Amino acid sequence: MYEGYGPAGVAMIVEVLTDNKNRSAAEVRNIFSKHGGQLAQPGAVAWGFERRGSIVVDGTRYDEDNVMAAAIDAGAEDVVQDGDSFQVLTQPADLAAVRDALTAAGIEFESADLTMIPKTTVKLEENDARKTMKIMDALEDSDDVQEVYANFDIPEDVLEALAG
Q1: What mean pLDDT comes out for the span 117-140?
Q2: What is the extent of the structural domain holding 86?
Q3: pLDDT digits (tens, 9 = 90+) for 1-42
Q4: CATH number of the domain to which 81 belongs
Q5: Domain total of the chain
């Protein structure tokens, strides 16, 4: 696991699976420096994230009350609406039990994974958002990188400007 800062001070955690630690470290360091970021010491960024179970349910197919009832009864901590979907958050140890309870209740889910949830976010303007998306893409395109977690928030109007 590597930690670093991207443009505008965005905190990033990069999970890597490799057979050559030196090669991966050099590649991740190169991506950070090439895109205006910097690699940080272990622990410098991780404190700002919490490991959680995350189950994504299609909000157009299921009622919030049904999802919430099944999830909370099974030990979920929270159900958050995120656009057209619900994100069910759990402690890592409770992920399987909540996933199984949703299945037993007839609720299909799009994904069920362990993730890193940021404690705080950095709101980005268009220029910083563009730079941040470039570093995220470069990291995700790296062969050894499994996951990239970051604490940025891009407002809808900025996302539309980037897409256009």
Answers
A1: 94
A2: 50-118
A3: 999 999 999 999 999 999 999 999 999 999 999 999 999 999
A4: 3.30.70.980
A5: 2
Predicted local confidence at residue 56, as pLDDT: 96
Co-location of 80 and 97 in the same domain: yes
Whether residue 147 is found in the same domain as residue 108: no
Of 157, 136, 94, 112, the closest CA to residue 4 belongs to 136
Shared domain for 27 and 108, answered yes or no, is no
Asked if 92 and 138 sit in the same domain, the reply is: no
Instruction: Identify the pLDDT of residue 163.
Output: 84
> If DSSP states are collapsed to H, E and C, what string results for the chain?
CEEEECHHHCEEEEEECCCCHHHHHHHHHHHHHHCCCEEECCCCCHHHEEEEEEEEEECCCCCHHHHHHHHHHCCCCEEEEECCEEEEEECHHHHHHHHHHHHHCCCCCCEEEEEEEECCCEECCHHHHHHHHHHHHHHHHCCCEEEEEECEECCHHHHHHHHC
